[in-house]
Amino acid sequence: MGEQLGVFGGTFDPLHVGHLACAEAARVALQLDRVVLVVAGDPWQKHGEVVASARDRLDMAAAAVEGLDGIEVSAIEIDRPGPTFTVDTLAALRTPGRELFLVVGADVAAAIETWHRAEDLPALASLVVVDRAGEPVQDGPAWSGTMTRVPMDAVDVSSTDLRERIRAGRSVEGLIPPAAVRLIVERGLYTAAR
Prior knowledge:
With 194 residues, the chain is α/β, with parallel strands linked by helices. 31% of the residues lie in helices and 20% in strands. It has seven helices and six strands. The protein has helices at 17-30, 54-65, 76-79, 86-93, 106-109, 159-167, 178-187; strands at residues 3-10, 34-39, 71-74, 98-105, 126-132, 147-152. A six-stranded parallel sheet has the order 3-2-1-4-5-6, with helices on both faces. Strand 1 (3-10), helix 1 (17-30) and strand 2 (34-39) form a beta-alpha-beta unit. Helix 2 runs antiparallel to helix 7. The model has no long low-confidence stretch (mean pLDDT 90).
C-alpha cells in the first residue's frame, strides 16, 4: 500500500502543544504512518513577522517531538533557499509509493486559495482539515481534491500569546514541551520586544 505521510507546515514560532495535538489528531484519525512537521524557512505570507531564526525554530521543534512516535521534524524548507511555498515542498516529498496528506487547521484552510499555486495542491496531496472542538466548523475551502475533516479537542494556545508571555517573564510550562522551553531559556529567545 505504500507510506501515508502527513505534512504539517508552519512557522512554529514557537511550536506548542496545540501544534502537536493537531498533528496527532490527524495521524490517528487517518492512520498515517507518520506526520512530518515542516518548519518554514522564509514563509512568504509572514515575511518580516517571524521572530526566531529558522534554525532556532527547527531546533525547538526537533526538541519538542523527541520521543514522540509517528511525529518528526523536517528542515526541507529551511534547506531550500528563498521564499518557501507548500506546493514546492509537497512536490519534493512526493515519491512513488508515498501518499501525501496536507494537514492544516480550519483557520488556515479558509485561506488556502491565497497560497502560491494553490490550484496545483490537490494533485499533490489530500487535504486534512483539523477542526478544534468548541469552534464553529467553517465552510470547506476551495479544494478540488480529496478533503477530510478531523475533530480535535480545543487547545487554547497561540504562538503570539506564548511570545508575549515569555517577553513578560510569565510561565509557558504545559503550553510548550519542556525540551523546547529549555532551548528558549538557554538561547534567550522571545525576550526582546516584538
